[in-house]
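Friendly challenge for the regulars: who can give me the structure tokens for this chain first? No prize, just bragging rights.
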Amino acid sequence: MLLILEWTQESVASLEKNNKLLYSGAKMNLYHKFDNDVQEYKGDKISLGYSQKPHPIVLHCHHIDFPINSSFFMFSDGITDQVGGPKNIMYGKKRILKIISETSDVKNSIQKITKDLESYQRSHKRRDDLSLFGFSIA
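First reply, four minutes later:
Bragging rights claimed.
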């Protein structure tokens, strides 16, 4: 039995044979990068852990065929919702996806996003936990 003590965003990915990835997310999306194109696979709009939700909770499973040299990314709303910058607005998804599409590999993408977010946040307090995950298939 899995006990979740408070609401949470979660995602699960499983690498299958023949270049197929299975993905399910609860309020967390998966981003697939190939060349400079980034495709979004949306997680379900449900948080886990609320006792008022009917059980069992069933999440949609994406079956994703991908070419070799693909990269995948997931990140929490703690990153996109972080306030900062000169206009004191949220960091946003577009900013992350721009860095991912313009960067050659997962390691550099994560390093650039992390540095950019730190610079963007400046003296603002962190609003939420931050989760950023990436992997590539070569």
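The CA atoms of residues 34 and 135 lie 12 Å apart. Residues 1-5 have pLDDT under 50 and may be disordered. Your move, everyone else.
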